[in-house]
Write a structure and sequence with these properties.
By secondary structure, the chain is α+β, with helices and mostly antiparallel strands. The chain has a domain of 81 residues: DnaA, N-terminal domain (GMP Synthetase, Chain A, domain 3, 2-Layer Sandwich), CATH 3.30.300. The protein has a 3-stranded mixed β-sheet with strand order 1-2-3. The protein is globular. About 5% of the residues have low confidence.
Length: 122
Amino acid sequence: MRVERTLILVHSLRQTAVSVLRPLLAAQPNTPAKIGFAWQIAAGAVLAKASTATWIADGTLRVEARSAEWSNEIRRAKTEILDRLTHLVGAGIVSSIVIVEAPAARRASHFVDRKSYFSRRP
């Protein structure tokens, strides 16, 4: 007796979104809005909310993180995000990601001594 097995593939929502959006994005011109949208998909909701991405036509994506902590998180995920962007918009469109802290975050980190601030008790 022969038993046939059917393999059912279950895709994550991210995989489904990418498979649907990739051909749609390919049909559009490369604009800062298109790359910004792709950044939101590639980075994910949390990192996208914690940053602002600006694409420059030379292939650089400048990502401004809200804080030093978010900057570190984006740095950790940078390679994976760049791979996802390449998959979404095509090779060479985004060639590098430059991560900077937002000016307000840089100023705040200079004025707050975090160690003493968090060790205080009310």
